[in-house]
Amino acid sequence: QPIEPERVPVGEALGRVTAGPVWAAISNPHYHGAAMDGAAVLAEETLGASEATPIRLRVGKQAEWVDTGDPLPAGMNAVIMVEHIQTHGEEIEIMAPVAPWQHVRSMGEDIVATELVLPEGKTLTPVDLGAAAACGHPYLEVRRKPRVAIFPTGTELVEPGTNVKPGDIVEFNSLMLAGQVQEWGGEPRRQPITPDEYETLKSRISAALDEHDMVLVNAGSSAGSEDYTARIVSELGTLAVHGCAIRPGHPIILGVARGKPIIGIPGYPVSAVLTCELFVKPLISRLLGTLAPPRPKATATITRKILSPMGEDEFLRVKLGRVGGRLTATPLQRGAGVIMSLVRADGIALIPRLSEGLLAGAEVEVELLRPPDEIDRTIVAIGSHDLTLDLISSELSRGHAGLSLSSSNVGSLGGLIALQRGEAHIAGSHLMDEQSGEYNVSYVKRYLPNREVVLVNLVFRDQGLIVPAGNPRGIGGLKDLIGTGVQFVNRQRGAGTRVLLDYQLGQLGASADQIQGYQREEYTHLAVAAAVAGGAADTGMGILAAARALKLDFVPLWKERYDLVI
Fold first, then answer.
1. Structure pTM?
2. What single string gives the DSSP state of each residue in 214-229?
3. In this structure, which of 40, 111, 478, 502 has its CB flanked by the most CB atoms within 10 Å?
């Protein structure tokens, strides 16, 4: 059932939901009033007036001066605009007749007393507030905002701004969940971080049920030794669902205690956001007595093959852009912990549970996270990653209203293939021809034959080996990686950096299997740098800017050219 109402001042009711119909207490306007500055008259006394036979009316007897909004004097039924009046002492002269009720706002012209002004279940807009006040309502009965308790759980969680150490996880899920609840009309109440202690968590959830309309428990919904949520829900009430055939968000928990929903939200951030959208949003709408409006949808062409497990609906985050009149969708990282996949996403594509995925070029329905006109003003860049693209994106957003750059990192070859398929406007590329040593030209001719292409040099970059601060392994070049046990992290197949690495290994007469970690792949220079900074690798190939960004050392090996293929 919808939640009980509360009475609020009309000036504080924006965005709230009416708890019942709003009937006009008074008419608007509640009197006959002048709609123009001029003279109020009896229309019948103006009949016959013309330029040839003007009529004069005596002020105070046959006419009264009025300003806009003044009540119409008794016995008068029309207003003559001041611009159409000549004055002669105590008389006014008119040269045209007026019709009854001309330039008069009649009582109830806008709203008649007892008229229905706003229905029940209406989300109040600024004009709704104006209409309510105009018809005599200083207060409105609205649905009380559903109070939603949000419990972040986990012994490893720390507050944002904490000086983190290995094993600490900054708690930010509750910020996102609270923002969603507030956006949907609820009143979020973030609770303190609760450690993975069964009795403590149960006690706090039980107390929250007394003061809230819904309880969200973030993390602890899986089946680990410290995942207590399902057991607590069972003991406090009824556990209805533990696990749902969706990805991400599989370990969702749905239960009821004391007539109130308890939802166990998965701990990974993408899972948390998506499951909150799927399960919490409809519940808040139900409590408010409204219907959650669906997001706009569009049909797009998927740019690469996607494999998806049978038996689960997958919600795929995508970047969108209109290239040559066709809406294209480029998949983003699919991990449940990759919050930036949601930050960068323009839409969510549903891969149905009975599908094994999507083929490149397939059409897919996408729920839009950005307005369609914004997507239409997006420059789509697919290809090799360079930090300069991020600067360009920021500059476009700052200096060119409505224009944005959407960048997807799939490697240089992937970018050229995207141009070939008509899926991008621009591709970043730094592919070196092993025969000539020239960058990009031969590849453009090979992959984009008979196409008009502009090749714009963006930067020259230092390529080399990213190493930890102080270079503890004393790495000086590629020779130090061959058969030495140094743990390497590579770029993905088709990346210009990997093409350069393979070329240089060939020059040394070495093979890939002589480098430990050659098969481990990352998709950006920053991801390589992060692997080194986190101790997962001793070194990886990348650019100087990425090493500097994470305060790592750098062993320069080559200069390379990075171009935009347009």
1. 0.82
2. EEEEES--SSSTT--H
3. 40
